[in-house]
């Protein structure tokens, strides 16, 4: 029986993973080692009971009494805190879903790779923050990382049977997010609610805002470089409002391989779960005659400064990705709590990169977890300062 763990089980990707595991037989078909969440104790306990997990862990330590109570008599152990999540990743499992949001997903992902199984990686932030370390850890332990981000799953599938040396370009598609058709001048006033109205994908709150600002696509450009080892100038971004082509690979003979499907994360998750085989999945089938047209347009860099910033980050290499991701997380926190405006997020990130990068040794790709955590911490402090200054200016 295959053993699995789901990190970030109570989130959007986690719920889709749970759905597929349950449809495939749940506790009768898989031995579940660990399920984790942040604070949603009731749902976490429900999942843990259903899958008969060995352990359920919530990140928030104050939730432990409630989690214990919810699991009483179930035989599932309860634990809490970041340390307990990392320890849950030390328990070997054949297939581990990494679906925690943000840099918090890095340590559990690294720890899980040490068992040499498969890490299904939705947590793109860990590749952006620590790509070389993650890849080196996987290689050292004979572990495999499979992409779960829909674009990267599409690219991975378009590369099957091909030689990466024959790849000329990789084209990431972007929906353009909730504010795609707003006039540029109006973007500064956009509210959280408006930025959350994603046209095609139902996702967690943070990635939905990141889609509107294209910080999500900026992270994905870096994720592409780290995952497939192509150079930054081979990676392009195109706005494709229908979100039916999930990405494309262009080869040196001019051919392009595109991956099409309904915008449903269960495709990419299911592909990673069943790989190298394909299994039936409960995904809506496309009716091309009804769709009739697919449209594309080049992204306007004035609307999406994140797409320019990710190029600077890739040129700087080293710890720049950790700085970029951490600054973005703080800027997003401040936007969500009303401290700064929608377009200020890019300002905070740009300011943080300018201040932190000269303070860091960035040239080398040989990085330790301590280097990364140091860069992440410094970037959060500097981004907090930059956001504070902007918030003060807004208030006066
Ligand atoms: P989400 O916010 O819906 O869920 C995040 C999960 O992580 C939840 O279980 C939450 O409880 C847990 N969590 C939050 N903070 C934590 C912390 N500090 N420590 C431990 N656990 C914590 O997010 P999501 O939309 O499911 O996204 C998860 C990851 O997948 C992200 O990296 C995102 O970029 C990536 N991703 C998501 C989608 C999507 O369709 N939602 C698509 C592609 C990639
Ligand atoms: Mg994506």
TrEMBL record:
Residues 260-380 form the DXP reductoisomerase C-terminal domain. Its EC number is 1.1.1.267. Pathway: Isoprenoid biosynthesis; isopentenyl diphosphate biosynthesis via DXP pathway; isopentenyl diphosphate from 1-deoxy-D-xylulose 5-phosphate: step 1/6. 1-deoxy-D-xylulose 5-phosphate binds at residues 124, 150-151, 175, 198, 211, 216-217, 220. It comes from the Bacteria. This is 1-deoxy-D-xylulose 5-phosphate reductoisomerase. Residues 145-228 form the 1-deoxy-D-xylulose 5-phosphate reductoisomerase C-terminal domain. Residues 4-131 form the 1-deoxy-D-xylulose 5-phosphate reductoisomerase N-terminal domain. Its cofactor is Mg(2+); Mn(2+). Catalyzes the NADPH-dependent rearrangement and reduction of 1-deoxy-D-xylulose-5-phosphate (DXP) to 2-C-methyl-D-erythritol 4-phosphate (MEP). The lineage of its organism: Bacteria, Pseudomonadati, Pseudomonadota, Alphaproteobacteria, Rhodobacterales. Keywords: Isoprene biosynthesis, Magnesium, Manganese, Metal-binding, NADP, Oxidoreductase. InterPro entries: DXP_reductoisomerase (IPR003821), DXP_reductoisomerase_C (IPR013644), DXP_reductoisomerase_N (IPR013512), DXPR_C (IPR026877), DXPR_C_sf (IPR036169), NAD(P)-bd_dom_sf (IPR036291). It is an enzyme of class 1 (oxidoreductase).
